[in-house]
């Protein structure tokens, strides 16, 4: 029937074998005869590894606030890429983010037995289970052990799930007991409607299924089911084999319920049984002697001729750095020629990889270049005097206009969204725990009763991020940053038509007014509306229902845009109101922290708006003084154990009084600021130095001399802390990327350089942008959408289901997964910690971009 032609190919006699049989035989042969992968070993970081494969066993736990973020449980780093997650006991075929998650009670690592055992608990059902992982042959065995049988309520519900990210398996096939199928590019498998009585409740009574289906829910059905599954048999980098010794393994497509769903392998736990109730043998293929390709980190935007130019090479721990790398330049004849053979300097190990550096600062000639390191060749980049001159334009021209709430936003032939949330908002109910971190306490702290309409709120503001809520503190940060950009650089660019009267925005259409001032006005209008109509700034304003919150697409369709009228039935309308309770809720518990911070933003905005909108400018200053006074009274009444002046709250009053002094020149504010600033610097230097630096132009020489000592301490501190990584800047190790932290670090360095150039040179500022633009771990993509030669292709915005971006958005960047993995996926937009662009991050980036342009012309 066949004969071997080579180790990777088979000649088939077409007369004697069907093509399907040939394909199945090829898959079987590939899995059984070609793999020479080594056995998994338990390393010192307490996960299993072999070249090309890491298996994590609850190195990362499920999150109690945002639930299933697809970053927990049993996970694979498969040939350098995280492709599998969520290995755990779950209660749904295809769990959504807000479905119940198990709590890890214990994790035992037995190095002698080469095993890891975790105990999981669903406290809601008093249900415990153990998962034991032990290497075997070229894979590992997964056992589920129960001390007691599955509770009656969970029979047929509790099962072991293992989730596979769809983008790693598109254009691939699967085998289930030898039967071939193709992973669907778009979800089109079967679903059923089940009675709500059979649904495991979601978080706090919320439901992702709309309120038309209160007595039913959607249940996904398997693509296939069998004892033996093979994922991507034709792709050795992604091949995974699963064999179940007892229960069938079902293959599901979770995207039927949510666009962020994954492919899931699942076996139901048997009823009325304890002890070892489920055993899988799992064999992810590992290519023999696999070594990850080097990643050459550099700025996708390019470099100024005179700045330092250091590329960072990220290497597999089993790779050895080459001695040299070459820099090639495009000549006038259209050919690239080598301009420099640079030494490769070994830096050392950081987390899971080795690092080396290429310094090509000696190249100052303008032109187009690329870097060649061994067989790896980068894309081209520029060295020019004006490389930074336009980098912030997409953020102000496109991204911020698209984020504008309560406005119709048009761009040429495209309408980004209609006018959203014209239904104002309702007072949130008492003692309510909401999603996305919102809570309402036992009092409203307003004149409104629970679920009473708050008028006058359909004005101004921005969508906080990829969701469509108003977050007040983010607005405060944006306004403060925009005012800094206005006062430091007088950013007068005009590329957007903004009409507050008709609530219309047109992108790429100048209207004779600086866009920056119009955006400051737009943010201020919502803050003023909060203070005037609610009585004080609020935590935020967000839709009441989970089935609204996961809305993707046009923001104007998240509600019916009609004020709620409780006298009407749901989905009934009289033309001016409706009985559908979809209006956003305002979470209104008052804190001095937010009052102070809002006062500071309004005080700063009053300066920027003077001469542009004098009436609004005067109102901002009046409200800022009022809020500062009221916040001080709140602090006097607060008990020591419930004072809002926490780590984030400390210094909030100082921010407010500084901005009031800068706006009024009233000496009482100056005195109050000076009473606080030095102690605050002693308590938290990095957190408070920005306020000290902002005050410099308004202070005397003695202040500058005294601050100099703190600046020296700051430099010593950051140099020591940032020496632990090859990029020489603050790399965040948490579940939300650190792009904003790097931007703020570089911006602080700008302020220091401008006032103390002998202490901190401008390279500390350029260094931050180099990181943002591609000189970072994992990849060399620019973290600013549509900026740089190669930038992010996907981001977590309102259009994330389209697998695209909004130009100018700044993604969070690299998340840290314990114990040693930094990740930023560019094929899956739904990881918000990696890919969600936020408004304050965008504003901070605009400031830094203009700061670098200021340095570019500095003599």
**What is the CATH C level class of the domain at 41-190 and 222-284, in words?**
Mainly Beta
The helix fraction, in percent, is 25-40%
Categorize the overall geometry.
globular
Number of strands: 43
| Main sheet properties | 9 strands, antiparallel
Q: State Rg.
A: 29 Å
Strand content: 15-25%
The CATH level-2 architecture of the domain at 41-190 and 222-284 is identified as: Distorted Sandwich
Mean pLDDT: 93
The side-by-side strand order for the widest beta sheet comes to: 3-4-5-6-7-12-21-20-17
**CATH fold node name of the domain at 41-190 and 222-284:** Beta-galactosidase, Chain A, domain 5
| End-to-end separation | 78 Å
User: Which consecutive residue ranges, at least 5 long each, have pLDDT under 50?
Assistant: 1-36, 643-649
- Helix count, DSSP H or I runs of 4 or more residues: 15
Structural class: alpha+beta
Overview of the molecule:
The chain is of the alpha+beta class and 859 residues long. Among the domains are: 41-190 and 222-284, Distorted Sandwich (Beta-galactosidase, Chain A, domain 5), CATH 2.70.98; 295-383, Immunoglobulins (Immunoglobulin-like); 700-859, no CATH class. The protein is built from 15 helices and 43 strands. The protein has a nine-stranded antiparallel beta sheet with strand order 3-4-5-6-7-12-21-20-17, with no helix packed on it. Helix 3 runs antiparallel to helix 4 (515-534). The radius of gyration is 29 Å and the shape is globular. The termini are far apart.
Concise summary:
With 859 residues, the chain is of the alpha+beta class. It contains 15 helices and 43 strands. The strands form 9 sheets. A 9-stranded antiparallel beta sheet has the order 3-4-5-6-7-12-21-20-17, with no helix packed on it.
């Amino acid at each position: 029937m066949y004969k071997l032609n080579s180790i990777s190919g088979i000649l088939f006699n077409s007369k004697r074998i069907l093509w399907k049989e040939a394909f199945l035989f090829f898959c079987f042969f590939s899995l059984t005869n070609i793999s020479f992968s080594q056995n998994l070993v338990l390393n010192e970081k307490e996960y299993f590894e072999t070249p090309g494969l890491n298996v994590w066993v609850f190195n990362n736990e499920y999150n109690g606030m945002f639930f299933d973020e697809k970053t927990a449980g049993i996970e694979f780093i498969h040939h350098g890429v995280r492709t599998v997650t969520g290995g755990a006991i779950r209660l749904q075929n295809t769990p959504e983010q807000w479905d119940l998650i198990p709590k890890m009670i214990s994790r035992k690592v037995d190095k002698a037995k080469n095993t890891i055992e975790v105990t999981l608990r669903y406290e809601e059902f008093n249900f415990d289970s153990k998962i034991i992982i032990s290497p075997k042959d070229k894979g590992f065995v997964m056992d589920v052990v129960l001390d007691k049988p599955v509770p009656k309520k969970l029979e047929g519900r509790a099962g072991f799930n293992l989730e596979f990210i769809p983008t790693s398996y598109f254009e691939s096939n699967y085998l289930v007991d030898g039967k071939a199928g193709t992973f669907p590019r778009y979800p089109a498998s079967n679903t059923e409607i089940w009675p709500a009585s059979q649904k495991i409740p979601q978080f706090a009574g919320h439901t992702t299924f709309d309120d038309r289906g209160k007595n039913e829910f959607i249940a996904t059905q398997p693509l296939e089911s069998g004892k033996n599954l093979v994922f991507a048999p034709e792709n050795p980098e992604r091949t995974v084999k699963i064999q179940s010794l007892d229960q069938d393994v079902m293959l599901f497509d979770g995207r039927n319920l949510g666009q962020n769903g994954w492919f899931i392998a699942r076996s139901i736990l048997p009823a009325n049984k304890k002890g070892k109730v489920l055993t899988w043998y799992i064999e992810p293929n590992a290519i023999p002697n696999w070594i990850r390709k080097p990643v050459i980190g550099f700025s996708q935007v390019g470099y100024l001729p005179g700045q330092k130019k250091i590329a960072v090479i990220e290497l597999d721990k089993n790779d050895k750095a080459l001695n040299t790398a070459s820099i090639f330049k495009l000549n006038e004849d259209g050919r690239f020629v080598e301009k420099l053979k640079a030494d490769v300097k070994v830096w050392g190990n950081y987390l899971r990889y080795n690092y080396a550096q290429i310094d090509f600062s000696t190249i100052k000639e303008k032109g187009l270049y690329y870097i060649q390191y061994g067989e790896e060749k980068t894309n081209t980049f520029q060295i020019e005097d004006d490389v930074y001159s336009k980098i912030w334009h997409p953020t102000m021209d496109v991204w911020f206009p698209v984020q504008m709430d309560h406005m119709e936003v048009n761009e040429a032939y495209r309408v980004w969204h209609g006018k959203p949330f014209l239904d104002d908002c309702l007072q949130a109910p008492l003692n309510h725990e909401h999603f996305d971190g919102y809570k309402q306490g036992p009092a409203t702290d307003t004149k409104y009763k629970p679920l009473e309409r708050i008028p006058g709120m359909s004005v101004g503001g921005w969508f906080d991020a990829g969701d469509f809520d108003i977050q007040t503190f983010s607005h405060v940060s944006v306004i403060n940053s925009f005012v800094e950009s206005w006062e430091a650089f007088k950013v007068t660019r005009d590329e957007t038509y903004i009409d507050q009267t008709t609530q219309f925005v047109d992108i790429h259409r100048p209207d004779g007014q600086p866009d920056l001032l119009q955006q400051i006005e737009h943010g201020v209008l919502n803050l003023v509306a909060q203070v005037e109509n609610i009585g004080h700034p609020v935590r935020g304003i967000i839709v009441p229902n989970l089935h609204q919150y996961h809305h993707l697409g046009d923001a104007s369709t998240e509600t019916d845009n009609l004020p709620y009228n409780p006298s009407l039935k749901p989905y009934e309308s009289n033309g001016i109101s409706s009985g559908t309770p979809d209006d956003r809720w305002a979470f209104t518990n008052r804190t001095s922290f937010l009052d102070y911070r809002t006062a500071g933003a309004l005080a700063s905005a009053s300066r920027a708006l003077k001469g542009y909108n004098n009436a609004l400018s005067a109102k901002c200053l009046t409200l800022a003084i009022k809020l500062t006074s009221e916040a001080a009274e709140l602090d006097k009444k607060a008990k020591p154990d419930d004072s809002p002046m926490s780590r984030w709250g400390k210094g909030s009053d100082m921010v407010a009084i500084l901005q009031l002094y800068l706006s009024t020149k009233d000496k009482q504010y100056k005195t109050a600021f000076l009473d606080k600033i030095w102690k605050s610097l002693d308590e938290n230097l990095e957190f408070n130095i920005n306020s000290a630096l902002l005050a410099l132009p308004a202070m005397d020489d003695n202040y500058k001399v005294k601050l100099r000592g703190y600046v020296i301490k700051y430099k010593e501190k950051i140099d020591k802390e940032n020496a632990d990584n090859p990029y020489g800047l603050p790399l965040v190790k948490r579940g939300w990327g650190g792009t904003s932290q790097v931007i703020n670090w570089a911006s602080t360095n700008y302020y220091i350089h401008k006032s103390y150039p002998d202490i901190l040179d401008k390279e500390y500022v350029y260094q931050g942008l180099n990181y943002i633009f591609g000189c970072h771990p994992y990849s060399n993509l620019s973290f600013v959408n549509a900026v740089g030669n190669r930038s992010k292709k996907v981001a977590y915005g309102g259009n994330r289901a389209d697998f695209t971006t909004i130009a100018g958005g700044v993604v969070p960047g690299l998340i840290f997964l314990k114990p040693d993995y930094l990740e930023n996926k560019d094929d899956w937009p739904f990881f918000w910690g990696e890919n969600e662009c936020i408004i304050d991050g965008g504003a901070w980036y605009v400031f830094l971009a203009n700061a670098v342009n200021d340095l570019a012309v500095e003599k």
